Amino acid sequence: MGTPTTSVWTAANLVTMARVALVPLVVLALLADQGTGGWRWVAVVLFTLAAATDRLDGYLARRMNQVTDWGKLVDPIADKALIGSTLVGLSVLGDLPWWVTIVILVRELGITAMRFAVLRYVVIPASRGGKLKTVLQSVAIGMFVAPLDTLWPFLTVVAWVVLLAAVALTVVTGVDYLRTGWAVRKQAP
Fold first, then answer.
1. How far is it, in rounded angstroms, from Cα 111 to Cα 180?
2. Is 50 in contact with 26 (CB distance < 8 Å)?
3. Domain total for the chain?
4. Which domain holds residue 71?
5. Which residues are CB-neighbours of 49 under 8 A, at least 6 positions away?
6. Would you call 7 helix, strand, or coil by DSSP?
């Protein structure tokens, strides 16, 4: 392995940028035809593709020794954009209660603000718990984007179980990040 790169233009960061570019397309497909019809399946495919790029960019960054501070900062923001905008779309359609969207968005926006507040001291990368939270959120939200109730109604119960686990982990990891941010702030000059 060589020296880590400082360039923003790495393969991993380009994948992250592609995820950000997919966000409005996911939302447009989700909301087309009031969330019904073939566009809903287009939203499923786009959401799945965007969610899968999260694992890919991390793999590329580590494999190619291209971990950058920019990637550590923007990757979680790209996740939040995808998750948050899809949650809002699902709530607008009435497929998901607003309380779920609000709890997740408050945590995500709060942690992003905290990360920016301590940015001059350190870049706080995603923790293992934060990564697991993102996976659970992605799986649950992907299940809600897919019109599963029309195919296999029992999967709606599975989607709710995964979503409630994701909400719980969202809150727990949010508290953990706040502790980390507070410790960084206390030790800062």
1. 11
2. yes
3. 1
4. 11-187
5. 22
6. coil
